[in-house]
Amino acid sequence: MTIFGVALLALCTLVGAVLGDVLGAALHVKANVGGVGIAMILLIAGRLQLQRRGRLAPDLKLGIEFWGALYIPIVVAMAATQNVVQAVGSGPLVAIAAVLTVIVCFIAVAVISRIAGPAESMDEIEARERGAPLSVAAD
Amino acid sequence: MGQMIAHALQANALLAAFAFVGLVMAVSALVSRYLTFGRIHGSAIAIMIGLALAYAGGVATHGKNGVADLPLLAGMGLMGGAMLRDFAIVATAFEVDVDKARQAGLIGAVALGFGTLLPFVVGVMVALAFGYRDAVSLTTIGAGAITYIVGPVTGAALGADSAVMALSIATGVFKAVLVMIGTPFVARLIGLNNPRTAMVYGGLMGTVSGVSGGLAATDRRLVPYGALTATFHTGLGCLVAPSLLYLAVRALMGS
User: Fold this and answer.
1) pTM of the full predicted structure?
2) ipTM value for the complex
3) 3-state SS of A50-116?
4) Which of B88, B159, B163 has its CB closest to that of A74?
């Protein structure tokens, strides 16, 4: 039944919220510490358990996947209800933070790949799999 | 007649919000296809439109809740509120395939670790440069540099100010757009022509929309490899940003 999926998702989210609050209290922080992340781990574990017992029915999955599919629209609604007027007053923080982040991460991609040594490129892999020279494999 | 429509919209506020966001998504899909030729993902455009609408709503009503301060769109507050947002974000973890996670292996894990830490540090430093000194705001803005989901999830968990949340979302969206546009130009420079680098790239850049858009524009065959690591990015961020990273910032800032 579809409601089982929705209920499982709700249960995981609620338990995550409680554990996040408990963790916050234990650490003397006035916050929910990692509740959403904990809930995600619970849901992944729940899925594995259901899969092993062969109980992962399509309609149960539907109850969870429907909400997963709605997450971008919900984020759009969230964005539309923020105090953007005040945020704009903070100047170019957004642009600077985003540009710097992307530059740093691009450099890190290059560095990590280089440390890991040479890798077979997509063209080479396809050429090898087809048993044909590169020029023929190009499409 | 107008009054009856207004009454129906207010009595069914959440449904009005669903219909309105559907309209925004439709417009974004058209803008994505015809104005950016698919370069910028429709979801990123939709979030930018959302932020722009929040600005317009704030100017019109002098309120703090964006379009939710308009009586006809009050339901946006419920749809975009913490409850449904956390619910939907947790649901995305259902698509995580544990066997695929093993495929990404050590290098994927290393990339994910750096992909969470580096943007966070950059975000916190920039926020510091702009005069923010409290741990909650610093963490929220730093988390936004990870992805536009991690930012507001973290901000809501820590009880951040709505303006800081808006900055955090905007930073994440702008980052995703930069990744989508910039990737084809730097692909050769960073050696992005093989599955392994694509996995490293996915773990470092994060946002699935940014990564899949950027890789699709570079080499369509690399998309699944990048998406493989990128899918774990938001989950990892939601786990460590409001916990370990916040505690670290709090320890450094002393409050």
Assistant:
1) 0.84
2) 0.85
3) HHHCCCCCHHHHHHHHHHHHCHHHHHHHHHCCCCHHHHHCCCCHHHHHHHHHHHHHHHHHHHHHHHC
4) B88
